[in-house]
Specification:
alpha+beta, six-stranded antiparallel beta sheet, 3 helices, 30% strand, SH3 type barrels, 2 domains
């Protein structure tokens, strides 16, 4: 069950994080470590698949399993031709459902959920038995992605192209206060806050330059 970024259509939008507070940290004592994996589902089924997973995971908790599911969905206002405005959810990464679980749970349980087609792989990883390793997104990067998606006032996008990133910064005001990343300046002079997401590239959002303060680089 494998997929690479080239197998997936390019991003659209996001849904509020489940248990964002638990996204960073270790599992309980004597438990196998949990990681964030990317399950590939059908296009335009991300939200319903995530909701179904969460219900299934609630049942699994009785068996001592503690899995999480998350789809990045950003809420935006859409104006219709009749002048009516409604709030809609934009899927930022089509066909992706992020799942946090142990490797054993991924292989023995999540992989057999009927609507999970395969898992995203690390195309740069060394093959094992002829197969690329399953991609893992670090907890802190997932927490930053969730924070950006849930708090940003401007559209969040994912870029897999190489970016010439500027200084390391921290947001000092607004809904994203405390979020750290790098500066990226567009050709038109606008400023973006960029958070690196291993395997996927960078999550980025436009932000006022006066909301960013430089971070000292470690010696």
């Amino acid at each position: 069950m494998e997929a690479t970024l080239n197998d997936i259509t390019k991003p659209q939008n996001s849904e509020p994080a489940a248990q964002v507070g638990s996204a960073v940290g270790l599992s309980g004592p004597n438990q196998a470590p949990k990681h964030w994996y990317i399950a590939i589902v059908g296009n335009n089924t991300e939200k319903v698949c995530c909701e179904r997973m969460r219900k299934l995971f609630e049942e699994w908790r009785r068996e001592g399993k503690n899995c999480e599911a998350y789809v990045p969905i950003q809420k935006e206002m859409r104006a219709w031709r009749n002048g009516r405005r409604t709030e809609v959810g934009r899927i930022i990464l089509p066909t992706f459902v992020f799942v946090r679980c142990t490797e054993l749970e991924r292989r023995k349980d999540v992989a057999y959920i009927p609507y999970v087609r395969r898992f995203f792989v690390n195309a740069a990883g060394a093959p094992v038995n002829g197969h690329r390793p399953i991609a893992i997104i670090p907890d802190r990067q997932m927490a930053s992605l969730m924070r950006m998606v849930d708090g940003a006032d401007s559209p969040v996008s994912i870029s897999s192209r190489p970016l010439r990133l500027g200084e390391r910064v921290r947001v000092n005001g607004g809904k994203l206060v405390g979020l750290e990343g790098n500066v990226f300046r567009e050709a038109d002079g606008s400023t973006n806050l960029v958070v690196k997401i291993d395997i996927l590239g960078c999550a980025m959002v436009k932000i006022a330059r006066d909301l960013l303060e430089p971070l000292e680089e470690p010696a």
